[in-house]
């Protein structure tokens, strides 16, 4: 999966990929103060594309949990399940349904997306990417977006969560890279100096099919140097 | 030497040969349109009487009945009951043959008609009825009674089902199919939106033994199916009418607080009490730990198992089982105080937060007789119960046996958002009781409201329900104010076990209409007829509790729709008139109510046709003499 970190203060974005084996679960967000956790499980293409050296990976399952509300939401490309201490509700991506309870609002928009809000100030959007069912290579996958995180604490961590706090980066020495349209540059971030490549990724919130191009500085090697520690530090055993 | 095959006697019985019986069913979106056609010929040298018997579900409305004799068809006309009655009485008073149709039984009504057929003549009976199949325990059930009086050369049940949501399962079973031979006559198949069941036994397959001339086709034929539920709701729109089916899946069961208000008066002595105890023990097995319960026993006095509702913990259930086993009959029937105690207990439990915030309350009352101790005036009991419940939860009444005022129980339940059910005194009464409990044991949503765009909808059927039960389905139909609208949106709001839910269904009208145009399967205006059926059913139900002007209005509306859509309801009768020997013969198809059905079964009416010869000289003003059986049973 690819990650995009938008930095509005600089009107710029940083992006990176995490390449791991299908089945791996990554910690995306963990906030000990609000008790919110988001983990994502990776899936791969059905098989490698003949013109691609590596197998593409995506998120196929997401787990959103609130320890304070004793609540878990599991989102797959097939269904959405919501648990609390009493039991489980299961919804399909063919439903258009709004679920509300104290401190939670969850809306599934049929075959498009799901918007989850925890009170005021924390809102996530999950996008359903559907491909032709009989496609020989690709399969359905999910996108995860944080559209509001201002109520999340300064202790929030995870592959996405660590970037909720303000951070600074500088890019200099822009020079031609291996591809003519993608220049390389030097980025200084978190007191580290990295070689980055100008590229673009797509934001699918508005248009789940075509997406909107987001220009970003790409950090190589699984975000090494940008993320705290190494990407394997974010591997967790289970979705919850 | 001449070799001959011995020909088994077949066909004619007493000169009448029924050579064809066909039950043709077309189900489109749960709305079943059934046509039963029987063809017979009089092989005798003299005129003979030919009977036609059909048992149809109580929930069905007859929509047509025709007689065809020697190629001439005599159609049925639906008339207001009073008008039909006058016509019928006139025929009887003039000594003419008059046919009558009436009903009895648990699930079925019996339609019987006979005509005299001249020697060598052929007669065709064709009865059409329609019903909306209701979903119970996760499937729709279509019930057909099969009981031909003789071997029939061409016997066939042919059912075609068309469900736009797609069929997920289809099965057909007959109680009389006991061997592979007859099994081979049954085929069932489904694929996508279409399902088909065919039962076509040959003459030899119908014989009760290889050399017998009597038929083994005698019993229940049941078709069950369900539809795909990729989405919780489905809206269909055709010709300006819409139907909205709602049955969400995957929701947890809302914890329930149940009080069982049980009649233990002397009349419950013996098998009835034993069966009630058996059923309660079985129900206790099905209780979920998050549920709360109590037992209120009423006879002359009221006793309770516990002072308050208690949680269905394993320990409490163990204790409850011991209590149920110890129940004994005694005294008379103080129904009023029993019910009020149960209701007050539920109200207190809620006020004192003894039950979970997100839980729902239910009163289940079982009685086998009328109140005869304490407050016994039905109107006063109704008022007391209505005031005590205050619309907060439903009351379900189970009437055990025949010695009770079922209309009162039904009225009492209906005005408190529940319903009544008769428990038939039989060996399976405990199963009937448990079966009822299973229907209401799993509420998935409470306070369900179906909302449609204001000003866009007319003539909506009931759109709010206290509960949605697992395995059932809510059906709402209506008329679009503007047929040219492009899209249609419906919201369904309800409280679930965990949270509040709003399901939204949006449909593109043109797309929906185009998708439903599979002419081969759809009988024209099925949504409009489904809407009319549902509206009449609900008007008749409301009418049971209405008084004065409101009752008159409801009656007028239901009658108007019954006449317009040709439904034989408790307000209408169908009259078929045929000239015979230069005289009129009148047959009437009626829809009896619950009380009439019971009355009929108690007085063992077995003949539905009379051929009165009035006393000479009194034809014009004939009144049946006292003590003479009078064969008109009014369905209202």
Kindly describe this structure:
The complex is a heterodimer of chains A (240) and B (636). With 240 residues, chain A is mainly β. Chain A has one helix spanning 220-223; strands at 2-7, 12-17, 25-31, 36-44, 57-66, 71-76, 79-83, 88-92, 97-101, 104-109, 113-118, 123-129, 141-148, 169-179, 182-189, 192-203, 212-219, 235-236. Chain A has one helix and 18 strands. In chain A, the strands form three sheets. A seven-stranded antiparallel sheet of chain A has the order 8-7-6-5-4-3-18, with no helix packed on it. Chain A has a six-stranded mixed sheet with strand order 1-2-17-16-15-14. Chain A has a five-stranded antiparallel sheet with strand order 9-10-11-12-13, with no helix packed on it. Chain B has 13 helices and 34 strands. Residues 1-9 and 597-636 of chain B have low confidence and may be disordered. In chain B, helix 4 (271-286) runs parallel beside helix 9 (429-440) and helix 11 (526-543) packs antiparallel against helix 12. Chain B is 24% helix and 37% strand. Chain B is of the alpha+beta class. The interface between A and B is medium-sized, with 21 and 23 residues. Strand 9 (97-101) of chain A pairs antiparallel with strand 31 (500-508) of chain B, so a sheet runs across the interface.
Specify the helix fraction band of chain A.
under 10%
Give the strand line-up of the largest sheet of chain A. Answer: 8-7-6-5-4-3-18
- Please report the distance between the alpha carbons of the first and last residues of chain B: 68 Å
Number of helices of chain A: 1
Q: Which class best fits the helix and strand makeup of chain A? A: mainly beta
Q: Assembly type of the shown chains?
A: heterodimer
